[in-house]
Amino acid sequence: MATRAVAEARAHSFDGLGLHRLQAETLVHNHAYQRVLTRNGFTRHGRASGYLKIAGRWQDHLMYQVLCTV
C-alpha cells in the first residue's frame, strides 16, 4: 500500500504539478520505508545527523531524492 501511495504522489508531483525533484527522509533503522522509496526510483543522497528530535532524542535520517526524467 505504501509503495503505491508513494508512486501516485510521485506521478502527481511530476505530471500534475510539474515539479522537477522530490526529496524524502527516513529514520536510519526504517528499512521498510527505504525499500518503498527505492522501489519508486528514489536514490539515497546523504545522511543528516541529528535531523529531527523524536521521543526526546535527536535522530539521524537518511535522505533520498528522485528527479523528473521527462
Explain briefly what this protein structure is.
The protein has 70 residues and is α+β, with helices and mostly antiparallel strands.
Structure commentary:
The protein is α+β, with helices and mostly antiparallel strands. The chain has a single domain (2-67), classed as 3-Layer(aba) Sandwich (Aminopeptidase), CATH 3.40.630. The chain is built from two helices and three strands. It has helices at 2-16, 31-39; strands spanning 21-27, 43-54, 57-67. Strands 1-3-2 form a three-stranded antiparallel β-sheet. A hairpin with a 2-residue loop joins strand 2 (43-54) and strand 3 (57-67). The longest helix has 15 residues, at 2-16. It is elongated, with a radius of gyration of 13 Å.
Topology:
Blueprint: H1 2-16, E1 21-27, H2 31-39, E2 43-54, E3 57-67
Antiparallel strand pairs: 1-3, 2-3
